[in-house]
Amino acid sequence: MDEEYDVIVLGTGLTECILSGLLSVEGKKVLHIDRNDYYGGESASLNLSQLYRKFRSGAEPPSELGKDRDYNIDLIPKFMMANGELVRILTHTDVTKYLEFKQISGSFVYRDGKISKVPASEMEAVRSPLMGLFEKRRAKKFFEYMQNWREDDPSTHQGLDINTVPMSAVYEKFGLEPGTQDFIGHAMALYLDDSYLTRTARESYDRIILYITSVARYGKSPYIYPLYGLGELPQGFARLSAIYGGTYMLDKPVDEIVYDANGKVCGVRSGDEIAKTKQVIGDPSYFHDKVRKVGKVVRAICLLKHPIPNTDDVDSIQLVIPQNQVNRKHDIYIASVSATHNVCAKGYYLAIVSTIVETDKPEEEIKPGLDLLGPCVEKFINVTDLDEPIEDGSKDQVFISRSYDATSHFGTVCKDVKSIYKRATGQDLVLKQRPKQEEEFAE
């Protein structure tokens, strides 16, 4: 370990592994350390024994649940948008060759006490119970406007400049009802709360178009998910880094971050060994003095013996409960996958319910989500802090990632990757499209 590196990366969360992969490919000498004996950090997928060790203080899992190897349970549930930034990073780096993906079968929304499918086609929209006949016409005009809008063609703007007007003004123009606004803003644009209504409509436009184009890519839903769980993603980038000379050390304690006389980072100490470096990138758990807490997320990992009721018995779904439907300030998300994704034993389903904590009783806050699951075989509650770095890292060359939030997709993770990349290298992360890989990915 007593060598000099360009970058030392602490923690093998997805953000850290993507960055070590990208920097290794660019010829940087990277050392990657994790105090855990498994990849993924906060974004790991655990087997049954690991899960019980973490949440049941070492108790043995019941034998009827099956074998350890049948389980890859995500600590943090997120799906990938088929046309999203993470897919572009995967294709840009060719990490797709280490992974297999399966589509998530449906996207659902909770409204007026019922679960309804978010329409994935015009036919579904016509039959959807989410809107009455006249509202469907108004919504159709709204979606046509969104899909036909072109920055450089004022005739498509219909008198609205979406770069300056708030999203609420666009809804108003098309006369959309609050319930319709809810499902567009929360189940399609995937906002956690309603603050987006006062921000410029361009941001919502980009998110809605991403959703629509992602659905168009494979039909059914906009989401895809890696077989064997999300823990496969950091491992894929770790393999990429290793191919380009990156060094990995798991189960290695980090005892001290070493700084020079000017306060710049110059090394990382583990026991008696010090590895020298010019920069350090890491997750918040390695830097308690350099991060601030901005909130908490509660997640319930539930093991079921049935698909989630009222969702057409499909093998996987995303279900959004918009805040307004349950008198909250933040949405509740349910992500469900099953044995077909190689994440649990045959006959079992995995549902993870999550939200941003608003009170001192986190478990009660996800009750509306838990109530929709039917009987649970097992339930593990996990409340984690949301941390963000206090400084940008330019002074001490220590670049810290943000905690994984309650969003159900990887948009915020990719934003963080791009931000750290730019701060650490001084350059924007440019993702090139590789047509050949794009085609392979779709097969």
TrEMBL record:
SUPFAM superfamilies: FAD-linked reductases, C-terminal domain, FAD/NAD(P)-binding domain. GO terms for biological process: protein transport; small GTPase-mediated signal transduction; vesicle-mediated transport. GO terms for cellular component: cytoplasm. Pfam families: GDI. It comes from the Eukaryota. One of its GO terms (molecular function) is GTPase activator activity. The keyword Metal-binding does not apply. Keywords: GTPase activation. The keyword Membrane does not apply. PANTHER family: RAB GDP DISSOCIATION INHIBITOR (PTHR11787:SF8), RAB GDP-DISSOCIATION INHIBITOR (PTHR11787). Belongs to the Rab GDI family. This is Rab GDP dissociation inhibitor.
